[in-house]
Specification:
The protein is of the alpha/beta class. Helices cover 50% and strands 11% of the residues. Strands 1, 2, 3, 4, 5 and 6 form a six-stranded mixed β-sheet that branches. β3 and β4 form a beta hairpin. It starts with a helix and ends with a helix.
């Protein structure tokens, strides 16, 4: 299985490097090597295919991080801030082994591991700047037929390696693989407005919401405006509207159709996020804490990319083929648009105020 990850980069010289490393064993000669310049070597389209962000966005990102990445001297040929960011982005773009990532810029695999950890932590620290919950001024008056919708909420499973320890099995989800169940709130522009990326794969979506800070803010009246839309796995609340299980009247049927159409934004957001950073689909082969950091960092980069352009980067054909093969070898993942299991629908325990508010919305806007 590990051999499949060795071809993630899709470049012949990287495969030659792997073969050379296997033959040479641990005998290393200390030499200083030249590191390439992808900005000069790659055209705009190829650059974005490989690193998942445009050249302009990468330059801006490096400028934001430069003071935290730059070394005071050039002793021991340090990796430049630009190459450190590019190595991290290439990791997000492929999920490849560190030895493969490092060969792209002539960086040792242990250095790549350290670089991706450090850069991911810096990008994740931009969370308060780029993942911002909507204020009253941002409230959409009508979002696909719904008045006052702040955003749409759902969870997605991101594959990880076994975290080990006594609680490892808590991370095994209902499809049998280890994952983090990550909750996000999306707006009409497919921006991630909130993210919770710390819960084990066995935890239900509604449990994550019941324990998140946004729910507490709604309950305490700290968010007095608008409401969220969620699927049938959540309890209906005045601040979280769910679809009707058995719509009977034409108004209820119109409500459900509009609800499905509007809530689709969070599923589309997951698709764009994972296509831009395939590591989220391939799986994270790192410690649990770093996995959470990488997920948050890619969410930050998703918002930066969406804010600068609505276009997705071109797909890497090698990655597309690999993901198809992995799906065949590993079995199905939990899809983001997968219907809520019937047993979970019946356990929602809808609150009376939530049902009353939902009915008022139906009567006022869908008659």
């Amino acid at each position: 299985m590990a051999a499949r990850f060795d071809v993630l980069d899709g470049i012949e010289d990287e495969m030659m490097y792997l073969e050379h490393a296997n033959h040479c064993g641990n005998n290393r000669i200390g030499v200083i090597v030249e590191r390439g310049d992808p900005f000069e070597d790659l055209g705009d389209r190829k650059f974005e295919e490989r690193f998942r962000l445009s050249k302009e966005t990468v330059w801006w990102l490096v400028d934001q991080m430069n003071d935290r990445l730059e070394f005071p001297t050039n002793r021991n040929n340090p990796v430049s801030p630009m190459n450190r960011v590019l190595a991290t982005l290439r990791s997000y773009a492929t999920g490849a082994f560190n030895i493969v990532i490092g060969n792209t810029a002539n960086i040792h695999r242990t250095t790549v591991q350290r670089i991706t950890s450090e850069v991911s932590e810096i990008i994740a620290s931009f969370f308060p700047r780029f993942i911002v919950f909507p204020a009253r001024a941002d409230l959409q008056n009508v979002m696909d037929g719904f008045p006052g919708v702040i955003g749409t909420i759902d969870c997605t499973h991101i594959r990880i390696q076994s975290p080990g320890g006594d609680n490892a099995e808590h991370f095994r989800n209902r499809k049998g693989y280890f994952s983090l169940n990550c909750q996000t709130i999306s707006d009409h522009n497919l921006l991630i407005r909130d993210i919770v990326a710390r819960w084990a794969g066995s935890v239900h979506d509604s449990t994550i919401f019941r324990n998140c800070a946004r729910r507490a803010q709604f309950e305490n009246g700290e968010i007095p405006h608008g409401y969220l839309l969620g699927d049938g796995g959540y309890a209906c609340k005045p601040y979280l509207l769910t679809p009707l299980l058995n719509p009977l009247t034409p108004a209820e049927q119109r409500y459900n159709r509009a609800h499905i159409k509007t809530r689709n934004t969070v599923e589309r957001q997951y698709g764009i996020w994972k296509r831009r950073f395939p590591i989220l689909s391939v799986g994270l082969r790192c410690g649990l804490q770093k996995a959470m950091t990488v997920i948050t960092a890619t969410a930050v980069l998703h918002n930066i990319a969406r804010s600068t352009s609505n276009e997705e980067p071109p797909e890497d054909p090698q990655m597309v083929r690999l993901l198809e093969e992995l799906r065949g070898l590993r079995g199905p993942d939990i899809d983001d648009d997968e219907p809520v299991p019937q047993g979970e629908l019946m356990q929602r325990n809808d609150a009376v105020p939530g049902r009353a508010f939902r009915q008022a919305i139906i009567n006022q806007h869908f008659q």
